[in-house]
Write a structure and sequence with these properties.
mainly beta; 1 helix; 9% helix
Amino acid sequence: MAETTKDPKEMTAAEAAKRVKRPVTTTEVLGKDEQGQPITRATTKLVPVTVAEVLSFKDYGSHVVVVTTDGQKLTSAE
């Protein structure tokens, strides 16, 4: 019997970068309270990772893990 096995498609760094997003938190000053202290609000946005930032990646099937050039480990897992 001849076995026919398909090699899974290899993921590229560009495909891995498309699947992973980096959380970025920004602080917005809304005004000042009665004591003169600033009133702030922090919001978190998910920013796409660029291909140039990808140092290494691994596809686990259910999610992708990307290591960036600045040393962060990011995942596409929810």
